[in-house]
Amino acid sequence: MAPLVNIAGLSVAFSGVPVLRGVDLTLHKGEALGLVGESGSGKSVTWLAALGLLPRHAQVSGKVTLEGREILGAPATELDRVRGGRIAMIFQDPASSLNPVLTIRRQLCEALALHRNLQGIALKAEARRLLDLVGIPDAGRRLDAYPHEFSGGQVQRIMIAMALAGNPDLLIADEPTTALDATIQAQILELLSTVRRELGMALVLISHDLGVVAENCDRVAVMYAGRIVEEAPSNQLFADPAHPYAQGLIGALPPLDGPRRRLTAIPGTVPDPAKMPGGCAFAPRCALASESCGLAAPSLAPIADDRRVACIRAEASRRALLGIAAE
Amino acid sequence: MSPPLVEVSAISRSYAMRSGMFGRATAVHAVDGVSLAIAKGQTLGLVGESGSGKSTTGRIVLGLEPPDRGEVRFDGKPMAMPATAAWRAQRARMQMIFQDPLGALDRRLPVATQIREPLDIHGIGTPADREERVRELLRAVELTPAHGARYPGALSGGQRQRIVLARALATKPDFLVCDEPVSALDVSIQSQVVNLLCDLQAELSLTLLFISHDLRVVRQISNVVAVMYLGRIVEIGSADDLFARPEHPYTQALVSASPAPGRRSAGRIVLAGDPPNPAARPQGCAFHPRCPRAIARCASEVPALSVVGGDRQVACHLVTGAQTRDAA
Q1: CB-based contact (8 Å) between A266 and chain B?
Q2: Helices and strands (H and E) in chain A: how many
Q3: Which GO annotations describe the biological process of this protein (chain B) (predicted)?
Q4: Any CB–CB contact under 8 A between B195 and chain A?
């Protein structure tokens, strides 16, 4: 099956400082992919760059194709059809994504008119259907309300409705529940997986919360300092993480049941993009680092059919395994 | 068990809120009849969603705000009147850590100066002693004197929270209120600060009130956990037992909503409705409009917090000691 989106060697630099350093990622139709990492790891920048949403001074290079067509640096008229129409995006702070002085109807209808060429009664009916779909009670009447009349969870539902207005093939949700309370987070995540199932849409869920990503995605990519360091099916990643950073992240998560244990803290902090260490960016914080880690940045190499890891130790152990298998 | 260091009995606090410019003022009950006791050297975790009154409870316990009703006793004595010498002496023994370390620090002062400030204010030690104490505190939070010379802007989020912690520990307090101390930090940094807090608590035999919306972090650090909903405690019990066997329907939903790696969302309790509005508190049990198990009685009668077995207390008409324990 041809991938829906293919990202190859995507790099981004802001005034000469690299923040994204060669990201390769493939997304298939209808797939749910999780992107985890700490702040500054490049999870949001990857998609902002892919969709041409970064400010002009950002230097972007690499390839991003949507069903085989290059969209990186594509002309504005083509990007306008992609953004909102093929690929939609929702953000962490839904309240600031809506215009506070326009009714929900105006904002939803704007998106519908733009992407679906709907008019008159059909337009209104579709706006109402979308609000119904995302679970806003009394949708017909609530269309005339302003954003401040809704709660935080409801505003995020409205953002999802607007994102669905163009019937996208891919929805990118950038920390969609980070600003919401736990019980509301559960509602929004359930809504996202329901609409994804019903509409056969692909989903990229960007989050710093490993639990959120693990539960809602088929496949997870872990990012560190502008690179993907591990990519695996979510159950495998959490059962058996291969990259020391992924291991550290999972060990840093306090358990909710069973015996309490001391958290395995990753020492130090994320490196400053302007002073990136040579070789593996994680080596200065890695308990398993050896001298060779500082020489060259390891490439993201397959260790199994659907798993890729960027760590020289993983590569060495794979060679050892293969060596044993060959004998 | 040792006598409680902090004893909170039936505190309430309400604020007047106007709806619109000419609207009538209505009372918002932020905290409504909360009672807690924290034993020396123990940690009480306070969880709940925004607007549940957990931060207001923390501020009242610390004496930053007076309760409308009820009383807070610290080390057996009632809180002293604000701005008296007795109050100041008491306040030196209790400190607070906030969520946003950058907001809690002065951006224009080197951090070492800020760590020393409580010592200057309370007149503790000679200037040379204070310098030595600052170095000691920096070491305690795993930073170096070189970090002390920097300004908050030149430190990372985790380092800033360490500085706030060092400053809170400067007066050798017995009691620390931590209000969402790690919520703004990245996962790897969060675990560093949680471990540090656990170590320091054991070392200095601190008593903690730990406020957070993050159940995992609360369980990691607490002995006893109280769950708040709309200004009231709905369930309280020992940390491990509470999260393993939540009794109140709200606690059950909270625990179920906490995402866990390796567990798919099958069987998750997803609550209908929005987080409650403290200004429009439902009649009866405040949780009943969202409760999947609510009965008619829940809409009219406020359930009292009562013991259901062991050290567990639950405020729910549907949970009584005998029934649920048998059912489970």
Answers
A1: yes
A2: 11, 12
A3: peptide transport; transmembrane transport
A4: yes
- Cβ distance of A254 and B219 shorter than 8 Å: yes
List helix spans (H) across chain A: 43-50, 76-82, 104-116, 120-133, 139-142, 152-164, 182-199, 210-216, 234-239, 244-251, 312-326
pLDDT single digits (tens) B146-166? 999 999 998 888 899 999 999
pLDDT confidence band for B277 (50 / 70 / 90): confident
| pLDDT at position B218 over 70 | yes
The domains found in chain A, sorted by start residue, are 5-217 (3.40.50.300), 223-255+278-322 (no CATH)
- The pLDDT-based confidence of B209 (bands split at 50, 70, 90) is very high
How many CB atoms lie under 10 A from the CB of residue B21? 5
Which pLDDT score is estimated for A13?
Answer: 95
Compute, in degrees rounded to 10, the torsion defined by CA atoms B276, B281, B285, B286: 10
Question: What parts of chain A have a pLDDT lower than 70?
Answer: 1, 315-327
* Candidate from A185, A211, A265 with C-beta closest to B195: A265
Q: What is the pLDDT of residue B274?
A: 77
CB A251 within 8 A of CB A264: yes
Q: What is the pLDDT of residue A313?
A: 84
Query: Would you say B65 and B137 are in contact if contact means Cβ atoms under 8 Å apart?
Result: no
Of B49, B158, B259, the CB nearest to A209: B259
What's domain B4-93+173-258+268-327's architecture?
A: 3-Layer(aba) Sandwich (3.40)
Domain boundaries, chain B: 4-93+173-258+268-327
- Which candidate in A215, A222, A224, A235 is best for mutational testing of the B interface (most B CBs within 10 A)? A215
Return the H-helix or E-strand segment holding B97.
Answer: strand B94-97
Q: Which helix (H) or strand (E) holds B240?
A: helix B239-244
Contact residues, chain A, for B219 at CB < 8 Å: 254-256, 260
Beta bridge partners of A32: A203
- A238 interfaces chain B, CB cutoff of 8 Å: yes
User: Residues B306, B307, B310, CA angle at the centre, nearest 5°?
Assistant: 165
Measured between CA atoms, how close is B14 to chain A, in angstroms? 22
Q: What percent of chain B has pLDDT over 70?
A: 93
Identify the helix (H) or strand (E) that includes residue A7.
Answer: strand A5-14
Say whether B187 and A190 touch across the interface (CB within 8 A).
no
Indicate the residue of A38, A215, A267 with minimum beta-carbon distance to B187: A38
Report chain B's mean pLDDT, rounded to a whole number.
89
Are A109 and A124 a contacting pair, CB within 8 Å? Answer: yes
Q: CB-CB: which of A185, A250, A269 is closest to B189?
A: A269
Chain B residue with the nearest C-alpha to that of A263:
B191
Instruction: Provide the CA B36 distance to its chain's centre, in angstroms.
Output: 12
DSSP string, A113-171: HHHH---HHHHHHHHHHHHHHTT-TTHHHHTTS-GGGS-HHHHHHHHHHHHHTT--SEE
Q: How confident is the model at residue B264 (pLDDT cuts 50, 70, 90)?
A: low
Q: A194 — contact with chain B (CB < 8 Å)?
A: no
Give the containing element (helix H, strand E) for A232. strand A227-233
- Tell me the residues of chain A between 197 and 226 that have a Cβ less than 8 Å away from chain B: 208-212, 214-216
Residue B325: which pLDDT band, with cuts at 50, 70 and 90? Answer: very low
Q: Measure CB to CB from residue A269 to each of B158, B217, B256 and give the nearest one.
A: B158
B-chain residues within 8 Å CB-CB of A260?
A: 219-220, 240
